[in-house]
Specification:
9 helices; 192 residues; mainly alpha
Length: 192
C-alpha cells in the first residue's frame, strides 16, 4: 500500500524499486492512511503548505521541490498520528525543517533596502512596497519569517504555530512581538 501511495504522489519513482517486501509491511503499519485518506489530506494541506514554503524560501521552484520532499518524508515517517491536526502539524514541522536545512547554506540575496522614496503612482508604489517587504523578510531570521508567515499569512493560532515550529505556546506572543518590531525597523526609512 505504501509503495502504491508513494508512486501516486511521486510518479517519477518506479513503484517496483521502492523497497523490499519486508520493508513494505513495516511501512504500511506506520502509514496508517489508505489511498483515499492520503488524497484528502493532500488536497486539504498542499495549497497552504506550498504557500508557506514559497513565502519561507522566496522561490516558487524551491517551494515545489520542498513540497515534494515534505510529502515524501511524511509518507516515510513512522509516527503514530493522534488526529488530523497532529498530521497537519507534523507536515508543517517537516517543511520547516527542510526550509531551515536549505538556509543553512550561505545566502546571497541579502540586498540592502533602497533609500529613495517611490515615484508617484499606485502601481509603482505598491510594487516598491512589495519589494521592500520581500527584502525585509529576507533579512529576518528563518524563525522570525516562519512566525510572521504562519500568524499573518496563514492565520494560524498561537497553538498551531507552536506545534508547527516546535515551540512552547507561551513563547509565541513575545517572539511574534519581536519579529514584528524587527520587521518594522527594517521597513522604516533611516532617519538622518
Amino acid at each position: 500500500m505504501t509503495r502504491r501511495l508513494l508512486s501516486l504522489a511521486f510518479p517519477f519513482i518506479d513503484a517496483d524499486g521502492l523497497g523490499a517486501a519486508d520493508d513494505t509491511a513495516r511501512e504500511d503499519a506506520a502509514l496508517q492512511m489508505d489511498e483515499d485518506t492520503f488524497h484528502g489530506f493532500y488536497a486539504r494541506t498542499s495549497t497552504m503548505l506550498w504557500a508557506y514554503l514559497s513565502r519561507a524560501t522566496g522561490d516558487a521552484s524551491a517551494a515545489d521541490d520542498l513540497l515534494q520532499e515534505t510529502y515524501y518524508r511524511f509518507l516515510r515517517a513512522r509516527v503514530d498520528f493522534e488526529s488530523e491536526a497532529h498530521r497537519r502539524h507534523y507536515i508543517f514541522r517537516i517543511a520547516t525543517n527542510l526550509v531551515r536545512d536549505r538556509f543553512r547554506r550561505p545566502r546571497l540575496d541579502q540586498a540592502p533596502l533602497p533609500d529613495e522614496p517611490a515615484a508617484p503612482g499606485n502601481l509603482a508604489r505598491e510594487t516598491e512596497q512589495r519589494t521592500d517587504l520581500q527584502r525585509a523578510m529576507a533579512r529576518l531570521k528563518p524563525r522570525e519569517r516562519d512566525l510572521l508567515w504562519l500568524a499573518y499569512g496563514q492565520g494560524s493560532t498561537h497553538e498551531e504555530i507552536a506545534g508547527s515550529l516546535g515551540l512552547k505556546t507561551g513563547s509565541i506572543k513575545p517572539l511574534l512581538f519581536r519579529a514584528r518590531r524587527k520587521l518594522i525597523a527594517l521597513l522604516r526609512p533611516e532617519r538622518a
